[in-house]
Amino acid sequence: MVLGDYSSKKSDDFCEDVCGQGSRVGTRLRCIIRGLDVKTWMTLLVVLPLLTLGIYLHYQKVTYFLRPLWESPPKPFNVLPHYYQENVSMEHQCRLHGWGVRETPRRVFDAVLFNNEVEMLKIRWRELSPYVDEFVLLESNSTFTGLIKPFIFQRNKDKFEFVKSRLTYGRLGGRFRKGENPFVEEAYQRVAVDRLLKVAGIKDDDLLIMSDVDEIPSGHTVDLLRWCDDIPPVLHLQLRNYLYSYEFYQDNGSWRASVHRYQQGKTRYTHYRQSDLLLADSGWHCSFCFRRISEFVFKMRAYSHSDRIRFLHFLNPKRIQDVICQGADLFDMLPEEYTFRELIGKMGNIPHSHSAVHLPAYLLNHADEYKYLLPGNCVRESE
């Protein structure tokens, strides 16, 4: 007799006595199930499903919270001090920055890709109008995500008569490639802006402002750069970061806006980092600063990060209104930071601000028209 055979038979007999007759696999499974206690059953039937559901619902939050473990912060900018006071001469301002002063100002071109930000565009162009020689605007009948859209600027061009003689306007047919990465369509439209700038007559050493419509350089910043000599070829602008309105100040971390001394064949209209130089406190970035809830929904579905709409209820108008007044995140995301200290410090809702100091002049001069952008007026129009 072999000991191994004996032990195996003995075990089978025991399981059959306990769990009844049946196949070896079925018998063992019944033995395992009958041997589980209440805590184990709770873990299998309640805890594990809830854990799985939690990971599914908050996967994005988990990955953003762990971001400091797998991604290092980008190289820091060399931040240049910014000097300005309305009673200080331009010659002295240039010298404070270490630059000379020109006999005549450079020409300035302001180029934007337009989606649906009619109100913000008006504030932008009114702020920059005294200092810009040519406004360049391109709009497409396609969003970055391939959705069909009307030519909204064309419909509202009567609101911009004040720049009509200085405007180079272009329309572009979308490519409508289903399932394509939105950044591909965005790049396609930015290349079209390069072509439109040549139509507008830009020349070497003209100043070119590259920024989204809601990234507004202050007028005095542009005036400084057009009058000062020996400024850097490419200079990023540090903008005050706001969300939904100028009531919710986030930080001064907006840097994508830039000013270039144009060079034929070298300068490209882009929206990424092109220099290590950042001019401090140079304007305002007011993201998702719309008058109507429908405009929020449109942008959420249209811009390059539309993949952040993980659930359809994110587009619910009542939810969007609640999020705006709370200063919360439209996509229920954690802050995009590279250190745990900064991430944890920015978690939660943005605090309300009561300051409306140093905002675009046109906004304050027309406060009744743009009341929704000022402190204490978070409720938006339903349509």
TrEMBL record:
It comes from the Eukaryota. InterPro entries: Glyco_trans_17. It holds the Pfam family Glyco_transf_17. One of its GO terms (cellular component) is membrane. The keyword Transmembrane helix applies. The chain crosses the membrane at residues 38-59. Keywords: Membrane, Transmembrane, Transmembrane helix. GO terms for molecular function: beta-1,4-mannosylglycoprotein 4-beta-N-acetylglucosaminyltransferase activity. The keyword Membrane applies. One of its GO terms (biological process) is N-acetylglucosamine metabolic process. This is Uncharacterized protein. It comes from Kalanchoe fedtschenkoi (Lavender scallops).
